[in-house]
Specification:
The protein is α/β, with parallel strands linked by helices and 287 residues long. It contains eleven helices and nine strands. It comes from Parathalassolituus penaei.
């Protein structure tokens, strides 16, 4: 059994802290969601029936999913703070659920579609996560995912490697592993698109503030204990690459994909054995 590298409660807490300021800082995240919505519009309009937005955050995509034809959207997130912000949108036909993406409180074959933008990169076991999503997806239903690939935040990783040997950047699943996991879950990919998004920052303070504002902080095992001091941040600034204008790039390697559940494919029952170590050692996230 693969060891969990992140405490899910810490992941939830960091997004709770980021909930109020998230939308104002989440430019890349919104661009990724908009592109995923565009792909849906190109190939699957109109949507219909019941859709789940897994890792819905502040509910940024709710209005667009409804506009594209979804009759009802279940917004699912681990962080209660994100759901509270999403509730403030006061949109019709939205149900908010606090739940783990690996342990969905949804019936088997109940969803006409699943939408998930920049969430599955937080999964320690993408195949298991996708198997759970395939379980709740109706045969012939649509899965729409945006996720991050290796190479994301490589500038940060390169700079920190010149300073210490601690882990400062989250690991990301490769495209090959992701597509293999889709196939193993009984999902057939119908569209794949990859593109680099690279925002630029005026200084290190602005870059780090943005990462904190979107909850993208480091909760991995092997990270440096405690907070980084001023000397460390000065060293990071010194080693960080700059473009010709002196600004700091931060790369996001984004993968968008659409898939469908094979009719006749038998999904796993409503039991997730891979969750047992987390339940045993960490306790279940309260809902």
């Amino acid at each position: 059994m693969t060891e969990f590298l992140r405490d899910k409660r810490q992941v939830s807490q960091q997004f709770n802290r980021a909930a109020r300021c998230y939308d104002s800082a989440a430019t890349v995240q919104q661009q990724a969601a908009d592109t995923l919505l565009d792909l849906l519009q190109e190939q699957h309009l109109p949507l219909n029936g019941h859709w789940a937005d897994i890792g819905c955050g502040t509910g940024y995509s709710f209005a667009s999913l409804l506009k594209l034809g979804a009759g009802q959207v279940s917004g699912i997130d681990l962080a209660s703070g994100m759901l509270e912000t999403a509730a403030a949108r006061k949109l019709p036909n939205i149900q908010l659920i606090q739940a783990d993406a690996d342990d969905l409180p949804l019936a088997t074959d109940s969803q006409d579609g699943i939408f998930s933008s920049l969430m599955i990169q937080w999964s320690e076991h993408p195949q298991h996560t996708l198997q759970e999503w395939a379980r709740v997806l109706k045969p012939g239903g649509t899965l729409a995912i945006a996720t991050l690939l290796p190479g994301t935040h490589r500038e940060l990783q390169t700079a920190w490697r010149k300073i210490d040997n601690f882990r400062h950047v989250n690991p990301f699943t490769s495209q090959h592993e992701l597509t293999r996991s889709l196939f193993a879950a009984g999902l057939v990919m119908t569209r794949l698109h990859q593109h680099q998004i690279q925002p630029l920052y005026s200084n290190m303070s602005e870059l780090l503030h943005t990462l904190k504002a979107i909850g993208a902080t480091n909760v991995n095992q092997g990270r440096r204990p405690g907070l980084a001091g001023r000397a460390l941040l000065r060293a990071l600034d010194q080693h960080y690459p700059r473009n010709a204008d002196g600004r700091l790039p931060l790369s996001y390697e984004v993968c968008w994909l659409l898939a469908t559940k094979q009719p006749g494919y038998e999904t796993a029952p409503n039991h997730r054995p891979w969750m047992e170590p987390y339940r045993r050692h960490q306790g279940k996230i309260p809902t």
